[in-house]
């Protein structure tokens, strides 16, 4: 598939009822082959931003992918392009993992032509394999741990092969090993497909080291947007997260954020 | 792994086959037993050569026994399907047309026409009864859906609303009984007890035809329903128009409940129990779960119909009483198994 994009968002306003959560956001276009980490304190509007992009909640904005206006597409087609992975885990139902993946494929009717060459089960198994969970294929969702279900949710999203992936805290239930493994897989997929990947992250060190770009939201507005090292500075961390912090470099030369205390409210 | 999954599929196929076998066996037994004491060979002869047997025998076999047996199958399958879809749509293991008041609403709808004696030149009273039952069932399902969608809705809130609906419509049906004349009263009692004895070929034809078409629509939505089972937000994020799927499903549930109730009255617990058994046996891939729940429902009602015939010698007990007595222990098991509720 040739690179598509970019994903452009202009004057995005969204909220629930009368409460406005996002105020007129116009970030720089999101380009394919790049991971953009979406960070910000609780309630800064990260999930709302992704939901608005995917069309799950109503919003006012100009949203285009390449030269296609996303707002004009029906939900099913929009999900083929911008797939949102919710923060909630897939429910613990009596459904074998492999069928959970097949259902995700079939949710919008038969699969697209390009992918029909391999069978549905093989396609599902291949994705489980890439996430190193193929041993779970025949286990019921109801018997899996939270972290395992999160991985299956991610496999559901990845196996749909969208143009843009919008991931809402996909690492929240994962252990250290899987956090790293998933981020590495996402990097790989983002570069190879290529994908436009937006990912909500709370772990700023992961954002600092594994994202290509960081978009920092604060109270529904863009606080900073750029290269991770340029965005995640001590000043920004103090203003937005209210912590005293500095960025150090480890022996390998990788930067990491060291927190030294709570900053007083200004 | 591929091979192992194939094996799972094969196992499910065999389970469905066994269910079908059990249904056939139950039907044959149900068909063969009766107060008239006809021998199996006489029954077979009547089936194959109806013109050569006495008129009473023909009447018993063709107009009483066969419709009774087939009606049990059709209504059981309809209730099994309605219950399965309801549990998926409302994400609630206690949902069924009976437990959440949809059947009671349909019974009230039916009683309304019956007691007022409403009929027109164009539409027969029995059609009006079904239509009225459908409208009341649909209204109750819409209310339940609204409540299960609201932000405060927990499993308990939906179940409690359902119980409120049951009580309300039961009271309304009682009111109808109070004001009904003698003839209508007898019909009403039949409705509230749930009985297969008024089965007829016309009714069997209607419920088999409409139920068959409805089930095709259900099967077509199987993948979407399976996805919905994993969470509403997830289903929507995968591109499913959740509101549309729910709406279509609610109409199907109302149609199936209304048909069942207007033909045989309120039959409890089949719609609750069948999906649970099907889920145990076949999992929640709706390609298997939906037909499995239909088959289980058909089997349960067929067995209940059989028990209803033999429970009191020489008398056919209303089937609704049998299913309720058998279903209540099961209901308690579901309630006490907390993990399913959470």
Automatic annotation (TrEMBL), chain A:
Key word Translocase present: yes
MF annotations from Gene Ontology: ATP binding
Coiled coil: none
Keywords: ATP-binding, Nucleotide-binding, Translocase, Transport
Domain ABC transporter: 7-244
InterPro entries: AAA+_ATPase (IPR003593), ABC_transporter-like_ATP-bd (IPR003439), ABC_transporter-like_CS (IPR017871), P-loop_NTPase (IPR027417)
Function: Part of the ABC transporter complex HmuTUV involved in hemin import. Responsible for energy coupling to the transport system.
Protein name per Swiss-Prot or TrEMBL: ABC transporter ATP-binding protein
UniProtKB/TrEMBL annotation, chain B:
Main location, first listed in the record: membrane
Pfam family membership, one: FecCD
Domain of life, source organism: Bacteria
Keywords: Cell membrane, Membrane, Transmembrane, Transmembrane helix, Transport
Cellular location(s): Cell membrane
Transmembrane spans: 12-33, 60-82, 94-116, 122-144, 156-180, 200-219, 253-277, 289-308, 315-336
Membrane topology designation: Multi-pass membrane protein
Family, similarity comment: Belongs to the binding-protein-dependent transport system permease family. FecCD subfamily.
Protein name per Swiss-Prot or TrEMBL: Iron ABC transporter permease
Species name: Acetobacter thailandicus
